[in-house]
Write a structure and sequence with these properties.
- With about 325 residues, the protein is an alpha/beta fold.
- It has one domain: Rossmann fold (3-Layer(aba) Sandwich), CATH 3.40.50.720.
- Helices cover about 40% and strands about 10% of the residues.
- The radius of gyration is 20 Å and the shape is globular.
- The two termini are about 20 Å apart.
- The relative contact order is 0.14.
- The C terminus is likely disordered.
- Bound molecules: NADP nicotinamide-adenine-dinucleotide phosphate.
- The site of NADP nicotinamide-adenine-dinucleotide phosphate (NAP) has 30 residues, from helix 1 and helix 6.
């Protein structure tokens, strides 16, 4: 589809160097959008830009930014305005999981996570939402997670917390902005093939999950785009598996689900570079394994595939390599 240059709209996508963000860039380029792509890894963003310019004639602007920096959203907005661009479609996608029990992870690591996945998300909505409303057209897609419906988990405590924030913020903004022609959705994917679990360091445990629990990025993106375009939602859940799960999570009392979630171990291990020095609470007891007969112990941490989050390209394994 070729859209005349005068009618083309521009999308800003955070976390466009990999996974769901990169799939979103590909999808919107095919739909005739021009793009502003941001993440930390410039070379990755430039690869995506050149692929999409050659395939679709997309005008792509690459702006590197580290969203742990509290000044990053305002700096991005200033660069966008200086370049004479406007944002018609915002995809707040950048994110990651920090594993480990809450008091075993350094505070700066957890503060950064909240900055990237809550404050930057809200600030980018706050910057670009009013401009969209003034023009009478806008799309805001905030990538939350099925985890937003999970009442707590053992390890990675902040993840369901920040995703619940994104879900509730998006629901409120959908209500406020709808009359102005700005559609807002919270996208709640289940497990999705991407670099996410390599960065988290729990790929080995995740690979044990059955294939029906895995989603492909392009599926998540097309469901998100179709819903936001139609002004439906504001909550988007892909696949019957996760629709059933989310429905159950809303029916079953939180205290019951919380007790079940406390038995999970896939997010229990803190990555060495995130570990807090000094005293921490005693190691929590893990449920004994029935079949092995071995004494229960701490789940083994799979080999890390990044030295420091984002400073090195994550090694991609298995089917995940098909995702881009
Ligand atoms: N995969 C899943 O199972 C799953 C399920 C539910 C929800 N989600 C959500 O989906 C979103 C995308 O994740 P994904 O699965 O596509 O993971 P991914 O493949 O690891 O991609 C994450 C993206 O976020 C960017 N990012 C990370 N830290 C950043 C920072 N400090 N500043 C700027 N950008 C940063 C990364 O780029 P750089 O490293 O280049 O900066 C990368 O482009 C996240 O919000 C995640 O929570 C994922």
């Amino acid at each position: 589809m070729t859209t005349p240059p005068t009618l083309r709209k521009t999308a800003l996508i955070t976390g466009a160097s990999a996974g769901i963000g990169r799939d979103y860039a590909r999808y919107l380029a095919a739909e005739g959008y021009d793009l502003i792509l941001t993440a930390r890894r410039k070379a990755r963003l430039e690869e995506v830009a050149s692929e999409l310019t050659s395939a679709f004639g997309t005008q792509v602007t690459v702006l590197t930014a580290d969203l742990t920096d509290p000044t990053a959203p305002a700096k991005l907005a200033a660069q966008i305005s200086k370049g004479g661009l406007q944002v018609d479609y915002l995809v707040n996608n950048a994110g990651y999981q920090v594993t480990g029990f809450f008091d075993r992870v350094r505070w700066d690591v957890q503060r950064d996570m909240m900055q990237v996945m809550m404050t930057a998300v809200a600030e980018l909505c706050h910057i670009f939402g009013p401009e969209m409303a003034a023009r009478g057209f806008g799309r805001i897609v905030n990538i939350a997670s099925v985890a937003a419906f999970v009442p707590g988990q053992a390890g990675g405590a902040l993840y369901p917390s920040v995703k619940a924030f994104v879900l509730r913020l998006s629901q409120s903004l959908a209500t406020e902005y709808h009359p102005a022609g700005v559609h807002v959705v919270a996208v709640c994917p289940g497990f999705t093939w991407s670099e996410f679990h390599d960065v988290a360091g729990n790929r080995a445990q995740m690979n044990k999950l059955p294939s029906f629990m895995w989603l492909d990025g392009p599926r998540v993106v097309s469901d998100a785009h179709n819903t936001v375009e139609a002004g439906r939602g504001p909550v988007v859940v892909s696949s019957w598996v996760y629709k059933v799960l989310v429905t159950l999570l809303q029916i079953i009392p939180d205290n019951w689900v919380g007790r079940l979630a406390a038995r999970g171990t896939r997010n229990a291990e803190v990555r060495a570079e995130d570990a807090r020095a000094g005293p921490v609470s005693p190691a929590p007891k893990k449920p004994a394994k029935k079949s092995s007969g071995k004494a229960s112990g701490t789940a083994k941490t799979p080999a890390r595939t990044t030295t420091k989050r984002g400073t090195k390209t994550a090694k991609r394994t298995g089917k995940q390599a098909d995702n881009g």
